[in-house]
Amino acid sequence: MVEGKHKSRSLRRLHKKTPGGKTKMYFHARRSAAHKCAVCGEALKGIPRMMRAEAKNAPKSKKKVERPFGGFLCPSCLKAKLKKELRA
Amino acid sequence: MFEIGRVCVKLAGRDAGMKCIVIDVVDHSFVVVDGQTRRRKCNIKHLEPLSQVLQISKNAPAAEVVRAMKELGIEMPEKKSKARKESKKERPKSSRTKKAKPVKEAKLAKEKKPKAEKAEETSKANLAGSEK
Predict the structure, then answer these.
(1) DSSP letter, residue A36
(2) B117-128 confidence digits (pLDDT tens)
């Protein structure tokens, strides 16, 4: 039987086989996916992967990078965007 | 292309998108810039040169840079000088010595109150606090 505290679906369930041959269930906290660049889709760096509840109380510095469009565009896409605007 | 006086726009870092002027050339890949950005050494790869070249001397002081930026039409706020940090370090160490603690004498001087009286006093204080 699943323990009371483990019944919550906010926990991720993982079935693993022990060396003895039994299958055991493990419960892990869910983690969000990495934030992606809006243009190229690459995973953004410098932003910890927090679920929404954690991120709500986190300071702004943990949800972005200190750069224009930080947390939204990757640095190469930002460079391309600035160059395009300047050369137009 | 990146000569002294060339107006550029920074492409990387905290000050990306801000205009700056080349003040000094270090070598084939690094220059020193100043303007809306901080005065710092910068890689040429992180700069986009514009068509304008201003008349400015090598390693120009901050005031001259402010005048040059006005030609571009950019009003720059006054930059804080670093002198404040140095003055903090010069504080004399004698002020940090701890004062002698005359606590024990005061404690001895106090009359020892019996426990019952103390309990009454504390309960009265609690009531007064809760009433407020």
Answers:
(1) B
(2) 565 666 666 666
- On whether any CB of chain B is under 8 Å from the CB of A71, the answer is no
Write the ipTM: 0.71
Does A66 sit within 8 Å of B14, measured CB to CB? yes
Q: Least CA distance to B49: which residue of chain A? A: A86
Which residue from A51, A75, A46, A74 is spatially nearest to A61, judged by alpha carbons? A46
Question: pLDDT by residue (tens digit) across B31-60?
Answer: 999 998 889 999 999 999 999 899 999 888
Residues of A in contact with B14 (CB under 8 A): 66-67
Q: Does the CB of A78 have a partner CB in chain B at under 8 Å?
A: yes
Which residues make Cβ contacts (< 8 Å) with residue B29, sequence separation at least 6? B43, B44, B45
B31, two tokens: 């220059």
The verdict on a CB contact (< 8 Å) between B48 and A82 is: yes
- Whether residue B74 contacts residue B37, with contact meaning beta carbons closer than 8 Å, is answered with no
Per the rule left: phi > 0, alpha: psi between -120 and 50, beta: everything else, B18 is beta
B13: closest chain A residue by CA? A67
pTM of the predicted structure, to 2 decimals: 0.65
